[in-house]
Specification:
Helix content is about 75%, strand content about 0%. The protein contains 22 helices and no strands. Helix 7 packs antiparallel against helix 8, helix 9 packs parallel to helix 12 and helix 10 runs antiparallel to helix 12. The longest helix is centred in the middle third of the chain and has 36 residues.
């Protein structure tokens, strides 16, 4: 019997080695060769364990056997369950899901009655975790949720009733001298429970239970740090991704904490990679550095979104009904914030914080580089902007136009959006214009570089944003000119150039909507309806802003303006569903359609009187 047991232990070790180590070097032509070998070894083990090997549960004459016999029965059931569990994992890893499910279900049945014993609780939970994953991959999320929540409940019940660190499945086939310490057992069991949390987070996310998913994700990340069971790069990416959920909820303290933690943990992956370093290494190391650079750039982009959202939300809070800074509200909010500094620290203590003391200190230091309160004036907004801009530059190092077109454009547009958000806090109109000019200088070269045939949507986005930026600059120049006693020729020329540039890009956007025969669609698609209507509205207004001393040219511009205004009115009359998308603009448009013909008639009369 002792010989059979030693043989079983040796076979177990060989099976684990084949599955976990040898399989990594299997040839492409036989990708599962070592997995199949492990499966045969596990089957041999099952045969060695005696007549109960084929039973599906450890139940047998519970009422007639003694305590020692019951313990022996439980131990045998636990060992058989470990083999069944590994067979289940083996089949799922070789894409044999039905067979895998069969073995995993058998595992659960074998130790059902012993699930609260230290010998069986870990393998039982792991089987439930794997059944949860299996059903989630099949798209059966409710079944997956049931298995995973059952594992979660079992952990809570075990810790409450028993509490001692349970036996790890590997220990069932280890010699006495290789048994784990209590500390190591606890660590492994907690890792199993962390996996339960991780899988539940994914399931809740797919079930659109976002708040619950975020809570489980946050707790998973904290547990991974606590029990030192994580890959630094993966951990950092998951923390940065979680920050984006908190951003949507406007929980800036939590979002910043996740991002700061992502920076700190990512740094544990090795030295910060650079493109120069990658060139001097061999191919494998170059791939590793390239992957690190990409992940680092993705974390940087999450920081950019943080800074951008902070600025944009501050604008929404501070703007008046015409979109300008409400100074009275600004003073009121500053006074309120001074009173709430202590409350903010109290609020921090309610959140789940990451890491042990040393990691937490590093995270705090990273947090201090950017505020989590909405900026209330230009100085505060500029500090947030500069942090965002630094991360823009970091992201651009990897996401270059050559090879990462879509990502590069998005990073550039985020940079533009940072400038646009900062403009709101700037009081000086000339400085506002300079910031908008920076936006144009970064957007225009990219727009000219891209082929609309391959990047139509991206080109439309850039064209519309460029048009809007020129439009805003034109409005600012008009406001500057109106403060002068008399507009000088330079200001007039600038207004006209900006107006014509805005018209050019709006027209490019509208032309992109035409069919191959260059005909504008009779009915606009929903996703371009409002942009198209706004473009028409702005072009109409821009023709009205062009300044000329030539009365005939003025009349021509007024006619163009009327044509665009009329298009909007006619379109809305023929497509009632379009009215909602341009409610604000439509009222003014109808006024202009009514007023412009009379103005044009007066101008014609003036012209005829001079002829």
């Amino acid at each position: 019997m002792a010989g059979d047991w030693q043989t079983a232990c040796d076979t177990y070790k060989r099976a684990r080695t084949a599955s976990e180590l040898d399989s990594k070097t299997d040839p492409e032509t036989e990708p599962y060769r070592s997995k199949y070998r492990a499966r045969e070894l596990l089957r041999e083990m099952r045969a060695l364990l005696g007549p109960l090997a084929e039973e599906e549960s450890g139940e047998s004459q519970a009422g007639t056997q003694g305590e020692d016999e019951d313990e022996e029965q439980r131990l045998l059931a636990a060992r058989l369950a470990v083999i069944e569990f590994l067979l289940g994992v083996n089949h799922t890893e070789t894409d044999e899901m039905s067979a895998g499910e069969e073995h995993l279900v058998k595992t659960v049945r074998m130790v059902e009655r012993y699930r609260l014993s230290p010998d069986c609780v870990s393998v039982y939970m792991q089987a439930q975790n794997n059944l949860g994953i299996l059903w989630a991959e099949r798209g059966e999320l409710i079944i997956a949720q049931t298995y995973l929540e059952s594992a979660e409940s079992l952990y809570g019940l075990y810790m409450k009733k028993i509490g001692t660190p349970p036996v790890d499945p590997d220990e069932h086939f280890s010699p006495e001298e290789q048994k784990l310490t209590e500390q190591e057992r606890s660590k492994r069991f907690e890792k199993v429970f962390t996996h339960t949390f991780y899988y539940l987070a994914q399931v809740y996310k797919h079930l659109k239970q976002d708040e619950k998913a975020a809570q489980y994700c946050h707790t998973t990340l904290q547990r991974q740090l606590e029990y030192d069971g994580y890959n630094p790069v993966e951990w950092a990416i998951n923390a940065a991704t979680l920050s984006q959920y908190y951003l949507v909820k406007q929980c800036y303290m939590e979002a910043r904490h996740c991002l700061a933690a992502a920076n700190v943990i990512f740094s544990k992956a090795g030295p910060n990679p650079s493109p120069e370093a990658a060139k001097e290494t061999d191919e494998a190391e170059e791939e590793r550095l390239d992957l690190l650079t990409e992940k680092k750039a993705n974390i940087a982009r999450c920081w950019v979104k943080y800074c951008l959202n902070l600025l944009q939300d501050a604008r929404k809070k501070l703007e008046d009904n015409i979109g300008e800074l409400d100074v009275d509200l600004q003073d009121e909010l500053k006074a309120e914030r001074r009173k709430e500094e202590d409350e903010k620290e109290k609020g921090r203590k309610k959140t789940v914080l990451f890491g042990s003391n040393d990691i937490y200190d590093s995270i705090l230091a990273a947090e201090e580089k950017v505020d989590c309160s909405l900026p209330l004036d230009f100085k505060e907004a500029r500090e947030v902007f500069l942090v965002g801009q630094n991360y823009i530059n970091e992201a651009k190092e990897y996401f270059q136009l050559d090879g990462h077109v879509t990502d590069h454009v998005e990073v550039v547009r985020d940079h533009s959006a940072l400038f646009k958000a900062l403009v709101f806090f700037e009081e000086d109109y000339e400085r506002r214009c300079k910031m908008h000019k920076r936006r144009i200088d970064m957007l225009e070269p990219v727009c000219k570089e891209l082929n609309p045939q391959y990047y139509l949507l991206v080109c439309r986005q850039l064209q519309f944003e460029l048009a809007d930026t020129y439009y805003e600059m034109m409005d600012l120049k008009v406001a500057i000119g109106n403060k002068l006693e008399e507009m000088d020729s330079h200001t007039i020329k600038k207004i006209n150039i900006l107006s014509q540039s805005a018209i050019k890009y709006y027209e490019m956007f509208l032309d992109s909507l035409r069919n191959p025969d260059k005909k504008f669609p009779e009915k606009l698609e929903e996703d371009v309806l409002r942009p198209a209507m706004v473009a028409k509205f702005h072009i109409a207004r821009l023709y009205g802003k062009l300044i000329t001393s030539d009365a005939n040219k003025q009349l021509e511009n007024m006619q163009k303006s009327l044509n665009y205004y009329s298009f909007i009115v006619d379109y809305c009359e023929n497509h009632e569903e379009a009215v909602k998308s341009v409610e604000l603009e439509l009222e003014l448009t109808k006024e202009m359609v009514a007023l412009l013909p009379a103005r044009m008639e007066r101008l014609r009369l003036q012209l005829s009187s001079f002829s």
